[in-house]
User: What shape does this take?
Amino acid sequence: MTNHWIDLRNSDVILIMGANPAENHPISFRWVMAAKDRGGIVIHVDPRYTRTSTQADIYASLRSGTDIAFLGGLIKYILDNELYQEEYVIDYTNASYLVNPEYTFEAGIFSGFQPDKASYDKSTWWYQMGEDGIQFMDRTLQDPDCVFQLMRQHYARYDLETVSNITGTPVEDLLKVYTAMGSTGRPDRVATIMYAMGWTQHTHGTQNIRAATIIQSLLGNMGMAGGGINALRGESNVQGSTDHGLLFHILPGYLAAPRAKFQALADYIDANTPKCSDPLSANWWQNFNKYAVSLLKAMYGDNATADNEFGYGWLPKLADSGNYSWLTFWPNIINGTIKGLLAWGQNPAVSSTNANWVRDSMDKLEWLVTVNLWDTESSSFWQRPGVDPAAIQTEVFMLPCAASVEKEGSISNSGRWVQWRYKAVEPPGEAEADGWIVNQLMLRLRQLYAADPGPNPDPILKLAWNYGEGEVDPHQVAKEINGWAVQDVKDAEGKVVVAAGQQVKNFTQLQADGSTACACWVYSGSYNEDGNMMARRDNVDTHPQELGLFSNWAWSWPMNRRIIYNRASVTMAGEPIDPKRALITWNAAEKKWEGDVPDGGWPPGERLPFIMRRGGRARLLGPSMADGPFPEHYEPWESPVFNPLHPQETNPALWDLEKDAKGATHAFPLVGTTYRVSEHWQTGAMTRNLPWLAEMQPDMFVEMSPQLAAERGIANGEWVIVESARGAIKAVAMVTPRFQPFIIHGETIHEVGLPYHWGYIGLVTGGSANELTPPVGDANTMIPETKAFLCNVRKSTNGTEEV
Amino acid sequence: MTKAMLIDTTRCIGCRGCQAACKQWHDLPGETTHNTGSYQNPPWISGKTRTVVTFNELEQEGALTWTFAKRQCMHCEHPGCASACTVGALRKTSDGPVVYDAAKCIGCRYCQYACPFDIPAYEWDEVLGLIGKCDFCVDRQGEGMEPACVKACPTEAITYGERDQLLAEAHRRIVADPTGYVDHVYGEHEVGGTSMLYLAGVPFASLGFPVLRNEPVSAYTEAVMRQTPTIALTVAAGASALYWIIKRRQMNMVLAEPVAAAPSIDQAAEKPEEVES
Assistant: This one.
């Protein structure tokens, strides 16, 4: 989230799209209701009328996978009706930048497409640059090559009728949403956007969020209290795990993972340090070297020296064009490249798209380790229905681990608040904390490498692994994450600012010369010499307007900043854009900012607000995206209808590893989508084993409209078969007017919805929706497209039919 | 001055945190249930389930509404169950809760017949069955805490306080948003008033709430029940016998035919007609 949970109450308009927070983030609704109580308008856009829709002032349905058409129509509406905040757009976005005149968009494809690689050469999407390294700009926004005009031209096609014809949303509902959102394009009104996996899990998922960026930037809603773009993270502490480098392409603190072509530390740093000569741009990533070297010092300790590039050579490098995302695991297990799997706190046999493919892949593993609270479909994949356990040779280790309340540590919520929690009870039986398990694993690996070094033992043996032999002290880890001075850190005059052995105050004290160590720079400041800031529990709202920052409660990254890009809440002259939501104010007498921690302490007008962007401005045009600088509507990989905008039906740069077989529309005419319910959590490993939750949602079900049910002769509550090109499952039919058919190009298109929580292990069991979902992914992130695919529903012949 | 809860169904998001919190606080077991085409589960209050959120899909004037109503004992000001109880196992406390003393209960189930809200649930699966119902967390209240369901509610759909103050708040909300609410605080007058007060955006009858007179039930139940103890006991014993016969037959059927898609006997026996809406 750019903002945070409590801040939702400051919104005049809340657009909830690609999310169902009343069901999946129920606590968030405390703040959504608070916004409503203050007169705020809540909008829910979703294929299905959900528990969230019940609280919406405006509900609009849309066919799954058509969000960009919906949002593109909103962009056009804002531009046509001049609802954008002009000063904000000119000062704080790249609207005025002139783009390479060779940029084109024709027949659904942007310039630079390389069909043989299914990817783009993005060079024509870049700006026209002056000799001084600053882009050319036209602050009148009239130049035909400026971003603003290219954007206007791009979305000119997204008129109400065209959009309605794609999304299936009635025009009057589109207008209700557009009017409400458009009403915030002025200083005294603000809208926020809440989204979740309903936006990300598409072959154009990243572009859904890009469209939100454009809208919120045009309306001047970024950096504002009550504004922003707020990703509702789906897993408790998934925010923390991404912050700490969970994904293959990043190291802790969102530092790019090194590629093989960067064998020297200097090359790695150079390639990841954006250059900008504009004095107005903070270009914060120019500090990349400090964060990278401090991370290496935290990893390799005294073994990391200037002479050995701080141990950079020991870091594993990704192949230059190597992709190691989720979808690549399974074919690599099948072909023997990957021999073993650690499934730690996850259950791929249920959670992964195309689950049958995943389960079959697991049969080829030499070994599998699962770390979980329960036996899961993954740890028991070898005894799943329909397989012969004797035919599977995989050695399976099931390690029971402690639950969240059975261990001490920090947890990072969607709003970037890092909160310390305590151990309430001892874990049962042989269960151990994850930290203990990691430590034991590493200690044993180190023993093995010490005894028999092999060709490359240093990445293991040179690690500064000093967490003791038993329980890992979470305070020690948290202090390492914050960072400390390895040697005295001195300022320009030679005065010691941090003495050796002291915790750094925050990341502004980190150095590139090896004098500091820090395991995750964005968390620097969370555990400094003032103590464990994450454990703070002062619930006084210190903001003079009580904007709900609660700045002394726990700690939020970065720098305890509660709303990022908050310098965009004031003009270049330093005046709050909305005086009643004065998130930060400049105290001219004392020459300092008050309120939230600003994005840099420079006086007003000295720096642009979007400090993590090279040029300091928000991007209406996104020249670094894999699949186009402007979001464009493409149909999902599997879709029952044609794309009326152009002959390019689907995202040309989407991730289709195996060139998988699509389901034929005549056999699978229905749009299928997947989601969660309040009562279950992810793959159900926790919740389907809890009687109080199992009783509330005992069976796999499929929601469908009464019209579809009538066509198929299906009665509410009866067992039916749902099938796609990849699998078939049984589910209870839930026939409900909360689903309505869509009229697309004059044709009736039905959609059905499937919760994904069930599997074959647990107190209650059932078919897994992911047996139906496709193994194709987003062009930028490779996240699988589980939110829109083709399927069919049919009456079960006798209710006992095996699938 | 009695304590009460105001349940504003227009603020409820149906998350059922209250339903789980109730089971957690009272350490009640889960039930074996099946999806019958609704989110509502368990289907109704039982010996193991003291509160249930009902899911009510309604289409009126072309508009769809989906309203969630947490149901439990209404804690009547003049409880029919207490007046029907011949051994004093149920009584209204001065603070509001209608409490149940299992040590006194003889399992006659007069209270079930006397309750206009179909609340007291008999533990059919126990040989020496007792009555289960919401106790308004009288133990928590005694320690100055709000009921477990109130604490769990994320949207302040359930609030707890003095009855007169909650009634005033309820009327304030109706006045402030006359199109958002029906002009009726359910429980203000029904059967002489209850400690559970409800607000809704649709007529209460459409949410499965019984339409009741304003006179206390106890005024007539007492008279009736005193005259007919023998008949009532016979009926109760007969119901128990019938339950066991049906249950045994169902279990035999389940054994013979392993696919049990039908609702369990608990639901079939205990699901009242008016829950469907």
Notes: Chain B touches chain A at residues 11, 13-17, 19-20, 23-24, 29-39, 41-42, 49, 57, 59, 64-68, 154-156, 259, 261 (CB under 8 Å). Residues 1-277 of chain B form a domain with the Alpha-Beta Plaits fold (CATH 3.30.70.20). Chain B has one domain: 1-277. The CA atoms of residues 61 and 202 of chain B lie 12 Å apart.
